[in-house]
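User: Can you help me understand a structure? I only have the sequence.
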Amino acid sequence: MNIQERNRRNKGYVQFRMIFDIAMGLLYIACGILVIAAKQLGFQFNVPISMTFLISLGGLFILYGIFRIYRGVKHIF
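Assistant: Let's start by predicting it. Here is the structure, written out as tokens:
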């Protein structure tokens, strides 16, 4: 395998990783919003869960989603 073929394969992996990171970041942000809005949407829980816990968990999901998007966009530049 010569160096040009190896670079071509590496570019494909980097592009896949970039798209995957951005898509997963959007998914984590959507999950965070869903967790925060769970009680307002009428989800029933078997155990009592405080709104503070739901907001904290949703916030962590959103922050991690932003990090994943940042990591994906970083591969572009």
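Now, to help you interpret it: The chain has one domain: 3-74. Residues 3-74 form one domain. Let me know which part you'd like to focus on.
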